[in-house]
Prior knowledge:
By secondary structure, the protein is of the alpha+beta class. The chain is about 55% helix and about 20% strand. It has helices at about 1-10, 10-70, 75-85, 130-145, 185-225, 230-295, 305, 310-335, 350-360, 360-365, 385-400, 435-440, 460-470, and strands spanning about 100, 105-110, 145-155, 155-170, 175-185, 295-300, 300, 345, 370-375, 380-385, 410-415, 420-430, 475-480, 485-490. It is elongated, with a radius of gyration of 30 Å.
Amino acid sequence: MRFQNLLKHIPFRIFMPVVMTVLLFILTIFQLILPMMQERLMDGKREVIRELVVSAWSSLEGYARQERQGLLSREAAQQQAKTHIRGLRYGPNFKDYFWINDMHPRMVMHPYRPDLEGADISTFADPAGKRLFIACVEIVRAKGAGYVDYQWQWMDDPTRIVPKISYVMGFEPWGWILGSGIYVEDVHAQISAITRKLTLVCSWILFAIILLSVLIIAHGAKVTHEKKQAEERALLKQEQLFQAAKMVSLGTLVSGVAHEINNPITSVMLNAPNLSRMWESILPILDRYYAQNGDFPVGGSVYSRIRDRIPPMLTSITDDARRVRDIVKDLKDFARDNPSESMEDVDVNEVVHKAVGLTANLINKSTRHFKLDCQVELPPVYGNAQRIEQVTINLVVNACQALPDAERSVTVGTGFEADQNYVFIEVCDEGVGIPTEALMQITDPFFTTRREQGGTGLGLAITDRIVRDHGGTLTFDSAPGKGTRVRAIFPLKKELHQPNRQVD
């Protein structure tokens, strides 16, 4: 009975944000993060088979070179090349392989389908009717190399037909096409394993969030029941709940990722210079051997091809590791608890550069035309650097999400209006624009024009509130199909006021 009475007094405005927070957390993990991971895994697999085919192609080049030098006849060179490629294996069970066909096409070599070798495969089709070897020839003729999607037997099991993606590359001296592929089910299996682990972790995180939410709701219900100002108390609990859930999720993620990444990155940064020094030490010995004995194979390639590539690769490893370390540091700074009451002089340009760095991956995926235009020697703004950084991130994310394709541009800039005594941050995009009827509601909580794409309507509401807390205004200039310009204005004075939002 006491529990039922408690439920009767739970304010709807507190209960709904709890449910929304849990649902948003679940949707973010399973509708955003996991699909992104699957896409990246697939991209990684594609890149791996491309590198493997390029490496195997270099061995063909080695045999062709011996033919040109008169060391081998063409028949002997081709036979040795086929034997070499036939024996190449990779993958968890060393059952992934390479095959060769020519431009007719005829099958030159296939480890698991010797019945096709020497046969005309121009009419060979997968169960879906796709003439896959004709597709390989067309890609090589058009581009020299590329990917082909089709259905094929699972490794050495001809009874099991599954989707496969292969990378094919033409070898012009002999009129051959060299190819290798990945099975889509491999990626699905990895995602399934990750999903199971992530589900377990998310269950514990959700349990903590729900427990915290129940405590807050109970406290809010008690305050609502005992005091007459229930509506004001419920609104306060709603904001506290949203911030608590956000910081629990973000803090858990950032602290865990930072700890797990910093250790291997530190190891990489320490070992890469050692590898560089060792390479410089053994380079004279390898050069002497090369001068005396000619070229020789190294790691699927030949010495002459990798000699000048190793130092830049080691330098790139060090630079990329340092970049990862800096990104982790910026994430930790962004997630650090820094209440709005912590006000100080803020360098707006520094904040904008850091925000752009944190969103660099999204920017690179969304547009090929990004521009950062910051006015030099801006006067400092009295405010909270973390909150201003959050404003910039929200505006950049919205601009990227508004682009229909990567050929549209995004511009982020800063400036100082001396006659009106304010500093501004401006984000312009060539996106789909905002309908006129929606402009007046654009900063209302839970109002969004992207609900079908998973929008929550909280980003601009939070952004507008932060700007108003700094005594500034958030202005919009937009038209459907012509893009949007958003300007966050921060006055150069400490006295804060609450002006109305302006819409251009």
